[in-house]
Automatic annotation (TrEMBL):
Gene3D superfamilies in alphabetical order: Aldolase class I
The protein, known as: GTP 3',8-cyclase
Functional note: Catalyzes the cyclization of GTP to (8S)-3',8-cyclo-7,8-dihydroguanosine 5'-triphosphate.
Record-listed [4Fe-4S] cluster 1 binding positions: 25, 29, 32
Gene for this chain: moaA
Listed cofactors: [4Fe-4S] cluster
Organism: Rufibacter tibetensis
One biological process term in Gene Ontology: Mo-molybdopterin cofactor biosynthetic process
Amino acid sequence: MSESLLIDKYGRQLSYLRLSVTDRCNFRCYYCMPEEGMNFAARQELLSFEELYQLSALFCSMGVNKIRITGGEPFVRAGIIPFLRKLSQIPGLEEITVTSNGTLNQKQIKALQEIGIRKINISLDSLDRERFFKITRRDSFDSVFASIFSLMESGFDIKLNCVVAENKNIQDIVPFVELTKDRPIAVRFLEEMPFNGSSTFGTPQWSHREIYQHITNHYPTLEKLQSEASSTSVNYKVPGYAGSFGIIPSFSRTFCGTCNRIRLGATGELRTCLYGPPATNLRDVIRSGNTTEQVAQEILEAVSRREKDGFAAEASHGTAIHESMSVLGG
């Protein structure tokens, strides 16, 4: 098949695939899913690792050069390491990154090193054990924190993703910035998003503006960093600090004009925007016996219908109830 670039009608080239390998997670973070009552996909509904590989290779042949592995929690799916090893051999794939809740073991960390994966985002919403428990509904703070330091000591490029919310973790914002003082670590503060599997969500009290103002109240002098054009975060550092921090307007969606992402869910749902409905289901397409060329055409048609921004995509959704982030893949 001849190479085709994934370019939407607004001229944005999609070169970054967020690939969810499972909807399951060993945490129950309040902003992602309810504590009980989640209907996880049956094994046969998930894309097999072979199907995930075939689709990833196809996306790379169409211009994708970066894949982020997401979930759920990727490392709860048996067979993830052999899959990552195979994925790393796809021609044209320049970078594989992973998003995890930090519950990796030493064997998995060593395997990631051997594969050549060096960039890992860890979802960590508090530096306090009690608040961590209230947010995740799991008593795993010590093991997660130990894993983060083990990753740093092993030479990984670590980003910590913190979802900011009133009455949850505001008192953690400054300690997170302080964490960057002596460590070459990047912290990303995110606006809360409406992906908790219910209709109970209003406008976040802490937008990117409030987060920035809170930080500048404690650090009046900040250095703004140069970011890639497609970056979702506006990045800063405190002068003299080893690391950096960024703020992601994930609800305000000010970065949509340069977004280069496309998402494939663990059950095959292809989304051209996190806030929009599935454009198609590639699991069904490939299991119906379609050729590689036909699957590619389905992808191209989905990209051609991509909305201008997250607000337009949300308006096309037709429902006030947003799915769990573990289903969407982040």
